[in-house]
UniProtKB/TrEMBL annotation:
Keywords noted in UniProt: Isomerase
Official protein name in the record: Aspartate racemase
Any Pfam family matching the protein: Asp_Glu_race
Keyword Transferase attributed: no
Family as reported in the entry's similarity comment: Belongs to the aspartate/glutamate racemases family.
Protein's organism: Microlunatus flavus
NCBIfam families assigned to the protein according to its UniProt record, in alphabetical order: asp_race
GO molecular function, one term: amino-acid racemase activity
């Protein structure tokens, strides 16, 4: 696991991985894993300045360290930084499990073909994530510019700091409602921190929680050789 973007959601990755392994294998089983946690302040500064190649190089070095420590599968614990997924994958010899592929598979399984996408401004406005979903057959809707700014601000100013506010939850509910009014059949929570704020009860259509979906796919892939 390559995390720390932010550590609030990376903690969820760690918890979910261990719970899912315990549920699958029983008893005292837990997930054997390596977690490299980077300083998110450094990453955020690179994001804001558009220094994506530099951010990719930072994560690539961290990924190489995870592989050297024995990892056989790489999970990048963030949606936004999948913008540099190819750069990270090129630095290691183990497969990187792409978070958007896990989200798209869940949408397809649920019969949802038009999805609303919530995430950071980078994820909602740039094509690296939307195109990945579209490649799986999803039509992707994003909020208005005003709503995108609100969603982004709450992520960085609140959720990444562990702050969960009821007024922000209500604001997100309203953003989701507007996406549904535009035709969204489901909503991809395309930022791992968003799941700290909203869930299925906050949406009139299915929500796709990318943190859980990503971890579920990772556990499935990791345990597959051991299963009958």
């Amino acid at each position: 696991m390559l995390g720390g973007m932010s550590w609030e959601s990376s903690a969820e990755y760690y918890r979910l991985a261990n719970e899912l392994v315990r549920d699958r294998l029983g008893g005292l089983h837990s997930a054997p894993l390596v977690l490299a946690s980077v300083d998110f302040a450094d990453v955020e500064a690179m994001q804001s300045a558009g220094r994506w190649d530099e951010a990719g190089a930072l994560l690539a070095r961290a990924a190489a360290g995870v592989e050297a420590a024995g990892a056989e599968l790489l999970v990048l614990c963030t949606n936004t930084m999948h913008k540099v997924a190819d750069q990270v994958q090129a630095a290691v010899g183990v497969p990187l499990l792409h978070i958007a592929d896990a989200a798209a598979a869940a949408c397809t399984s649920a019969g949802v073909t038009t999805v609303g996408l919530l995430g950071t401004a980078f994820t909602m406005e740039q094509d690296f994530y939307r195109d990945r979903l579209a490649a799986h057959g999803s039509e992707v809707l994003v909020p208005s510019a005003t709503d995108r700014a609100l969603v982004h601000r709450v992520i960085y100013d609140e959720l990444c700091l562990g702050v969960v506010r009821e007024e922000s939850r209500q604001a997100y509910r309203e953003v989701i409602a507007r996406l549904v009014a535009e035709g969204a059949q489901g909503v991809v929570l395309g930022c791992t921190e968003i799941e700290l704020l909203v869930g299925p009860d906050d949406s009139p259509v299915p929500t796709f929680a990318t943190t859980r979906l990503h971890v579920e796919a990772a556990v499935e892939a990791a345990l597959a050789p051991e299963l009958p």
